[in-house]
Please model this.
Amino acid sequence: MESNFESAQTGTNAPAPGGASIWSIMIGVFTSPTQAFDNYKKSPSIIIPLVVVLVLGAVVAGLMTGPNASMQYDLMKNSTVLPAQALEQMKADAENPKMIMGVIFAPVMIVVFSVLGALVAWFLGSFVFGGTAKFKAIWGAGLLGSLIMQLGALVRAPLAIAQDSGYVTLGLAAFFPDKDFTSIFYSLLFYLDGFMIWSLIITGFGYAAVLGISRGKGIAVSVITGLLFILGAIGMMAFGMSFAGVEMSFF
Model:
């Protein structure tokens, strides 16, 4: 009975014998990632990192509802296909954003894409780079690494609200203010901002630790997984814009 209770604690927030708590591990992702993931490998925990990421994602989605709605309207207002009623609705949503929808929808998408990302990373790490790890540990390492992206989103949100624009970026895309998401080049730079690059590197540390592979291979797993999802997002966006009659270009 006692051992089962101790096991349940270890799966949530209690430290493994001689180990660190999940809270100190999450802080360590920012301050000492190598040690943090070495501690995490001893007792992988999913629940608290997932809850923290979901809460942060919901907060960011709520804050960004207005700026993102304004950005969507700016992109679609030159559509040659969308009916006037649809454009008017987009304009109304931009002027009166429905934050609750973003708050509800964001956590669902985070769960879906974090699981898919973990599956890709598990496949690459296990079958391509020769590592060994349980899916739970891979998923958890990805969630811990994504805390950095959530921090970047929280930093970006007030700037976006102030400018009422989802185009606010913390990366190289800022050097191309005349471009938008109709440019594939701009879109790639937008997604690969400073926090995303930092997150991919630190997540690579996590994959290396839990898979038992070199840090270089772990970062390769993280970068390949991240780029696949970024390119997939750009591809879906391009398809949606072409369907809506909005032209895209590479540059």
